[in-house]
Design goal:
Elements (H helix, E strand, L loop, with lengths): L1 H19 L7 E3 L15 E3 H5 L40 H9 L16 H12 L2 E4 L6 E5 L5 H11 L3 E2 L9 E3 L4 E4 L4 E5 L8 E3 L12
Length: 220
């Protein structure tokens, strides 16, 4: 009957939601065709399953800091006061970055986008020289993430490659300027959409768009 059909559908959706939020590589819906090798700068947009289903507020273990929805209120340029910087690091696409950072709440660069940039090569150099890699807000230039911390460079890269986006852990987040909203959306205090907190068995995992943290540092 109709009730049984609805129950089975809900159970299937719930099972898929649990599967996708416990470390699965398939963590998002694809809404447009993946770019070919001849168009590395193009992007497709993806939506987190739980956001799409609207399954409500989540609870996150500390030290994840929750922020208020007002952080992402409309401003002069989408959810931010300014567009993204010019000449973003790692040859990230400025148009893609501006759309994702400032005019978007749910979507993301396509899975593996960061491998179409020169991030991996430059990250190896930065880590070899400084022992860490710093990631800055693409709008403001403020420091948001520092990795790796509490693990090796190889472990950081392996996890990020596995999930398809740069993936950070609690100790790698600069909480001075990063918050998570109740639905898991990760944002900067300036209103930059960063990605989502998708916890797995190891704890909080911040799945972040490279184009959102490709800014150049700006001194206060």
């Amino acid at each position: 009957n109709i009730f049984q059909s609805m129950l089975k559908t809900f159970q299937l959706i719930a099972a898929v939601a649990v599967f996708l939020t416990t470390g699965s590589k398939a963590s998002a819906f694809v809404f447009s065709r993946k770019p070919t090798a001849n168009s590395p700068k193009t992007t497709s947009l993806r939506m987190g399953l739980l956001d799409f289903l609207g399954l409500g507020e989540k609870r996150f273990d500390g030290p994840c800091l929750l922020g208020d929805e007002s952080i992402m209120s409309p401003k002069a340029h989408g959810t931010s006061e300014t567009p993204v910087q010019e000449n973003l690091r790692w040859d990230c696409d400025e148009k893609v970055a501006d759309n994702i950072c400032n005019f978007n709440r749910h979507y993301a660069e396509f899975r593996g986008y960061w491998k179409s940039t020169n991030f991996i090569e430059e990250a190896k150099k930065e880590y070899a020289e400084k022992g860490e890699i710093k990631f800055y807000d693409s709008n403001t230039g403020k420091l948001l993430f520092v990795a790796p911390k509490g693990r090796s460079f190889e472990d950081f890269m392996k996890e990020s490659l596995s999930h398809g986006w740069p993936s950070f852990r609690d100790e790698e987040v600069v909480w001075d300027d990063v918050r998570c909203l109740k639905n898991g959306e990760a944002v900067s205090l300036a209103g930059t959409h960063l990605g989502h907190n998708l916890p797995d068995f190891s704890g909080n995992r911040y799945c972040i768009n490279l184009v959102s943290v490709a800014g150049n540092p700006v001194e206060n």
